[in-house]
Amino acid sequence: xxxxxxxxxxxxxxxxxxxxxxxxxxxxxxxxxxxxxxxxxxxxxxxxxxxxxxxxxxxxxxxxxxxxxxxxxxxxxxxxxxxxxxxxxxxxxxxxxxxxxxxxxxxxxxxxxxxxxxxxxxxxxxxxxxxxxxxxxxxxxxxxxxxxxxxxxxxxxxxxxxxxxxxxxxxxxxxxxxxxxxxxxxxxxxxxxxxxxxxxxxxxxxxxxxxxxxxxxxxxxxxxxxxxx
Length: 229
Description:
CATH topology of the largest domain: Ribulose 1,5 Bisphosphate Carboxylase/Oxygenase
Low-confidence stretches: none
Distance between the termini: 40 Å
Largest sheet: 4 strands, antiparallel
Shape: globular
Number of domains: 2
Radius of gyration: 19 Å
Strand content: 15-25%
CATH class of the largest domain: Alpha Beta
Structural class: alpha/beta
Mean pLDDT: 88
Strand order of the largest sheet: 7-1-8-9
Number of strands: 9
CATH architecture of the largest domain: 2-Layer Sandwich
Order of helices and strands: HHEEEHEHEHHHEEHEE
């Protein structure tokens, strides 16, 4: 009931217009009332045809201020890379006990694998796939440089993203307690990464609509025309 009233209050206070980044962040901060520290999320509707494989986007972005949380990583590897994974402080390192690994996956944010263990990872595809955890070379999660990949992802500064079937990119860009500048810097970094990932055959406007929201809050339309994108 309280949440419904809060959502109604948010909707009533959002005018029928597009907001600049700072205005949107201020509104989200004003109406956060939950006990936990909400994430600030962004939904970016792209001008792509998801039925064409070459227009689907999957890549990574570096967020200078991170996400405000520690990322839990599961690593599939063997040989000398096991020591590298331990040194980089991976949360879970694969062993022969596949059944135990299946239970642990629910606690994991990212799965990294060296190429020589992808056959093993493939057996867990029915679990990893639906959760968006399947390793991918484009995301740097299939790699021989296990140590470097863990370090880049562990601090929450490197994120991965891909469009959904409607051509929308969903991502977090920080926590509600971040400064406005930190949130904006993270958002701009994501936008710059997306611009580099733009399919060559796309003509005209690439970014159709952009919305900011919080974990438990309403969405606010962003005036992205002022961003020169």
